[in-house]
User: What shape does this take?
Amino acid sequence: MIKILQVYPVMNNAGTEMVIMNLFQNIDSSRVHFDFLVQDDGERDNEIIQAGSTIYKIPFNSKKQYYHELIKFFHNHPEYVGIHTHTHGEMGIVLKAAKKCDIKLRIAHSHNARQDLPKIAKLYKYLTSYDIENNATDFFACSEEAAKWLFPRKYNQYRFLPNGINIEKFIFNKNHRSEIRNEFGIKNDDFVVGHIGRLAKQKNHEFLINIANNLKLHKNIKFLCVGEGPLFEDLSNTIDELGLQDKVILVGSRNDAYKFYSAFDVFILPSLHEGLGIVAIEAQTSGLKTLVSDGVPKAADCKLNLSIKNEDIKIWSQEILNCQISGSSILRNSYYDQIKESDYNIKFSAKKIENFYLSKIED
Assistant: This one.
């Protein structure tokens, strides 16, 4: 058995953490053991510890402090033959320290793609990618766009690793539909527009609320948004100011977010940018009509009832109304077989990364 250290600032319930956890839960732990290095306590910590893994914490106070503590950590833990670090601001520092300590396998994994930044910010990001590119041994990404964003000079060396999901969790479930709708006082004949994502600028919740405001005269259309983040209070205030308290529900963070797909009737993801948009994969798996912005990579389209829309509130609003009128034209669980054989089945992606770790260490 080999030990691989997964590195990410905090293990909460957002998209990147879910990708890491899916791999953690489905890799063969008799061959590859995961431990975690974080900067702060997270919502998934107890789950990780109960599964038999260790979480180490090095808070980030400054680049110099963080680098020196990483050097000390790697010297004290020679059992880790590889590190797998995921998109975050200190990624280059982690890889540089790991290289200094002669860790053989050093993976840079990109989960995001910022297409919305001004040119000067893109230039800055291009320049600051050097530490990542010069100190990683291998590059992974969930899409070509994500690879170009994080390692622009070496993106042609990246390996595609699909953001695999546990498809059984997302198959439409009538009990989950009743459970969630009852919890939030949603009637059987209400049409629910769903969204799952961190409440941050990237996810474009202001646009989502504007759509809800545009549809406020349609009393039985409800918006259910699952996720926590820095904009929670601002968005709550906007909802209050527009008088949409009965229209838009901010659920907050949930450990059972997978159940909400069954409660939705259509799923929307109006993000400004995404590395992939794993929630779009999950929504399609649940048989939902899925509307996404053009900031979502084409790799998220499983050819299962997904539509890409530009940023026009009227177009999105009309599409939602069309979905309400047409109802479900397919059986919600009719996509199981197709997804089961796709790259997005976690069993395939977990086996792929497992074999990669072992082949690199055995070289």
